[in-house]
């Protein structure tokens, strides 16, 4: 029976991270490079037909399975254990306080009892997992526990994709958690390791932008906004009379008429910068925080020409595009120049692949 029991764990066996998004399937495989840290063994992606995945739900199992099989073949991986991600909106998370000193079995019983207060579904319709975070400040008799719950049917859909593709779903994570794990590894390489900083991560996907804010490594704010790269593609469709797939391909290739930059791209960049600055203002008004030290951009849209500069200019905050494989060794089959272009879209897949190492 699929559940979230692997949500907070890891596995030493070879494992690939498989990110199933609205627009594509992305795969990452990492290995232990000993004293040199980690090595990127392989990565690959395959586009999904429109509508195969919508709002995080797998609507066409066969189309998703076909894409996963193609990405496995393209990557050349022989690993069969896979870490999958659940959309944040599909998972309920809650920090709860429980008495310290309980056994694992007692904790499970208590967590199920507490979960019924926060989950708007019957418990037999959901899968649960929990992780003990640690003792509660100023209360040695209590511990803080993270509870996670998701509808069983949504987990089963992803497990079914893995099994139909010849894979074993060994880990089920939350996409936003995986992205933050990958980002934390990158930030740890910076001077001071990011200590004491407030960092905002904006993952700009095809349909949704996910904002996470971390203060000194702890997530203090999350929000999703209905904005993404598909709006730029739709503008291209309307302006030039192209089919959506052709518009998407020509957008990525930069093969568009001379007036594209001024007439289509510039308004999109203004809208993207507005979404970011609005999210930041909402963060300030809804939390005690009054500053953000750094903005990190990721997702398929992170490298849209001009986006980095306009976000930095409008927000007046130091802004960078995330390079999730920074500091890793590269296998001989990985083309470094191509990786620089592709990498920002692989933040979630990289975070999922990191679960191999706990």
Automatic annotation (TrEMBL):
Signal peptide range in chain numbering: none
Xref: InterPro entries: ATPase_NBD, FtsA/MreB, PilM, SHS2_FtsA
Cross-referenced PANTHER family: CELL DIVISION PROTEIN FTSA-RELATED, ETHANOLAMINE UTILIZATION PROTEIN EUTJ
Protein name: Pilus assembly protein PilM
Organism name: Pseudoduganella plicata
SUPFAM superfamilies: Actin-like ATPase domain
Pfam families: PilM_2
Limits of the SHS2 domain: 15-183
